[in-house]
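Protein in question reproduced for absentees:

***
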Amino acid sequence: MEWGKEMTITYVVINIVIMLIMLLVLNKMARIHVKFSRRVFTALGVGILFGALLQIIFKADSTVVKQTADWIGIVGNGYVSFLKMIVMPLVMVSIIQAITNLESSKGLGKMAGMVIGILIFTTLIAATVGSVTADVFGLNASDIQSGQVEKARSKELQTKLGDVQEQTVPEKIVSFIPENPFMDMTGSRPTSTLAVVIFSAFLGVAALQLRRKKPEQAEMFNKIVNALYAVIMRMVTLILRMTPYGVLALMTTTVAQTNVKGILSLGEFVIASYVALIIMFLIHFLLITFTGLNPINYIKKVIPTLIFAFTSRTSAGSIPMNIETQTKRLGVEDGIANLSASFGASIGQNGCAGVYPAMLAVMIAPTVGINPWSIGFLVKLILIVAISSFGVAGVGGGATFAALIVLSSMNLPVGLAGLLISVEPLIDMGRTALNVDGSMTAGVLTAHLLGKLDKNKFNDMSLTEDSDEMA
């Protein structure tokens, strides 16, 4: 149902007032020192409820919902923008500070190699899980009906494919090198986060080696970096305080604008996707268990970060909260936490670069006469998924980019991926949460294997509560 212009404005204003009241309630909860995690869960639940009511009353594609979402988006999208604002400075300063505080640079390569190795290993598992799940559910792209929106999306993917195919594997590897680190600080490329990590590592190692020849300058540089790190982390704390408000707004707009008909028509794919994602979460928890650590402690401490990743759909934007959780609650050393969070936003994303492309490939294979149960097909698919997981952007669209690379490498038609556009946001929420959990798992496992995990901090359940700064 559509209303006149005056009625539309009236309803939009009412919806905005309701949102403002809910934001004030969350603020009141913070003032009376309600636990941070409880406020985040409250925001999640209320956001789902309010979004559902908006959709039921006004319909997802109505002018009222669109305009309401635009105004509420100031809070949700604004929060995500603040997090993205701090990502590059945080990554750069944190890695430099972590390296300059080392005794030598000898262990840096081992640390980075182990983080990347675990990320790729879990991506291999994720691709296997995605492939098997798609096979078990009998998913087939030819069974999906396409409309005008889906056809338009298919054409768009065909265009993007040309851009992807222009870059060879060696060229892609070279693209990780920061030719212009200041440009990469703006996040201008899919590999910008990796490029900033590499530049920061070089800067940190150079400062570390300066100790022998010019100790005074090295000491001065260390003091500057430590001061910058303290200021940046304070900024992170200020921004993370906004999390409940951001989650409320993001969840409201997501649910209000969700295409329910699309979800119902593609219900089997949605269910299969979440089954695969849940299996991968369980595998992460099993890996934590195999190290002798308590997975329940881990789960309780990472849930607020996963909720934010779920609602915001940005792995890169989750980096500040990811690092905060690893260092202050899980006991992961600063250097390892920064590497795993930064690498995890671009390399070895279990959800976007692992589960999703593998499921699509298995779905599309029968449409061109390929047996997806073939061992040769599955082995090739899993290996290609692992290799192509390098340099996937940690923001919206990263899964599509990964899928294009995998499907084109497997000689499968990429256009059919556009048939899933109506359920893309819903599935992307779960994929992003899995990406972030994969990076935190890599951080904990690396720290444990290198003997740099503070187990007392990991086991201290009081650290799931608010610190004085986050209250």
In short: DSSP finds 20 helices and no strands in the chain. Residues 63-100 form the longest helix (38 residues). The chain has a mean pLDDT of 82. The two ends are 43 Å apart (CA to CA).
